[in-house]
Amino acid sequence: MGVEAVSEWVARAADDLKAVAGIAAVYLSGSACVGAFNPDSSDLDLVVITADPIDSVGLRGVAAALERQGGPAAAGGLDLELFTVADSRSPSVPLHWHGAIRWHRDAAHAEVHSSHGYGDVDWAPSLELTRRHGIAVFGPEPEQLIGPVSEELLLAASRNELTEWASYQPHWSLPGGVLTACRAWWFWAEGGLGSKIAAAEWALARADPGESTIIQRALDLQSRSSSSAFTPGEVISFVHAVAQRISRPVGW
Predict the structure, then answer these.
(1) What would the pLDDT profile of 116-152 be if each residue is shown by its tens digit?
(2) What is the DSSP letter of 43?
């Protein structure tokens, strides 16, 4: 599915989401809002802002509105996060409420999850990315509804993500682990927040020769210009090195 088809899918989905009571805004986020979307490998990321928490029946209704479009619009599937207006304006832990819809490419239906008093910080980078770069599908511009996410929360989310990657699971993308580490490094060093591709290109100019080789291979695999595979050990070693680097004070 090409970028134009993805845009059409999102527009159709937005028309249905407008009819769901309580939705204040829908934003295109992730790689699609920073010009790095690849329909053959990327997830499609959406952020939805709601007036109030949505109960399980309402959340299933949001998923049904998406399912009517005939399947996720990207090879990586659909990731949709929901935040209330109050949490979006003053992001902090715990969130009063957080919702998520995950639709895998080959699944007949989307998975829905929600939680009151959500104490994890995994949402922080996506909400801040949406504030900085998100594209309004409908509703006001993102900075009108989303307040700045603190550096502390963003760093905590980055460090947690690298800790998870260091325990490598076989179904995870090894190039994705390298690019995720580059994004954490970029934010820690300069406050950069954008696509994983942009982060890897930033890291290339600052890495030592061994690290540069791994980063370039990850970029080549992501663009499908190379089929040279990684070993888990190579990726875990790189992730560990970056995790150690960003455990220091910011910009150290």
Answers:
(1) 999 999 999 999 999 999 999 989 999 999 999 999 9
(2) P
Cβ contacts of residue 38 below 8 Å, gap of 6+? Answer: 31, 222, 223
- Amino acid at residue number 151: E
pLDDT in tens, 218-245: 998 877 766 667 889 999 999 999 999 9
Quote the tokens at residue 21. Answer: 């009571």
Written as six digits, the tokens of 109 are 């239906």
Per-domain residue ranges for the chain? 3-148, 152-246
Domain 3-148, second-level architecture: 2-Layer Sandwich (3.30)
Judge whether 219 and 201 are in contact, CB under 8 Å. Answer: yes
Q: Tell the residue number behind the tokens 């802002």, with chain if given.
A: 49
Closest to 119 in 3D by CA, of 102, 136, 95, 142: 95
Of 44, 36, 29, whose CA–CA distance to 131 is shortest? 29
> Phi and psi of 13, rounded to 5°?
-60, -40
Cβ atoms of residues 91 and 127 within 8 Å: yes
For the stretch 34-62, pLDDT in tens is 888 877 778 889 999 999 999 989 899 89
List the Cα angle 96/99/103 in 5-degree steps. 170
